[in-house]
Amino acid sequence: MKAIAFYVGFLHLIQCTAYAPLAGITARSVKTQQNVDLSNFLSTPNSSDGSKTMLIMGTYAADFNAIEYAQRLRYYLPELKKKGVSKVGLILNCEEESAKALADLVDLPCDVSYDDSVTLMVDPLGEAGRKFGVGQGWRPEDKEISPYIKLFAMLWGLGAWATLPAVIGGYIGNPFTAQPWIEDAMAVGQKKGRWPDMALVLNEESGCVTTNKFTELPVVGSWPRRPLELATLRLQNMMDISIKNWKELAPNENALKAGVLTQLGGCVVYDSEKKEAVFEWKDPGICAVANFEDILEKI
Predict the structure, then answer these.
(1) Of 50, 74, 265, 266, which has the highest C-beta tally within 10 A?
(2) Cα 267–chain centre separation
(3) Where does the secretion signal sit in this chain (predicted)?
């Protein structure tokens, strides 16, 4: 009886320390091809490096939100580590080859490339994101409407209210809050030959940015985030990542039926010492992903 009581108590302890919204939900590791229990992933950090774990619920690999999450993550990994985030997972709603292709396109250090900083996982039908509670776009229950029509409606804010503000914000800039990841992502794109390719001047030997031409704009060039800067990156992403590589990155028929074309993303940072999520975010629209400057401030 004591053994049974101990076992029950042990199970209760596990349940209390795990992240409940993802209890019993798995995603597949791209590297090992094994299922990863996401609740356990979040609640078991690499303790020697910090007590926090980040998990990003990405979208399908050709989607603006997935691309921007990967680009932001690439830039902010060192800062996240300084804040005690010892383990990071990125889930994409696609098959393994699509996930690896996106990681390569944005030069994301992950466990299937040149670094173990990010655990790359796939959830082709988007079950983990839905369990987490991400937005599912416009009329997700209506199976008669084409998912592409639903996606078009979302571009105008239906089922994704923050889409237009996020897109417009990329054009008008922000005089208060810096977003340094934008320049880094554009530099990666230019090195890989993506267009537009005239915004930055790169050192031919090191590849480092020597001049950001947006800083030369009159008056607004001194803003932390200059007008048109993010819009230019998004044009680069659309033309030379999403459209150019659509066949390689697009969701398959089963994924379309599951609704991943219109499913949004989100992220969570869990602190195993506090036994609670210290940051949670669910994308309210297309291009409206988590602000990593806010994440660093809150964790």
Answers:
(1) 265
(2) 7
(3) 1-19
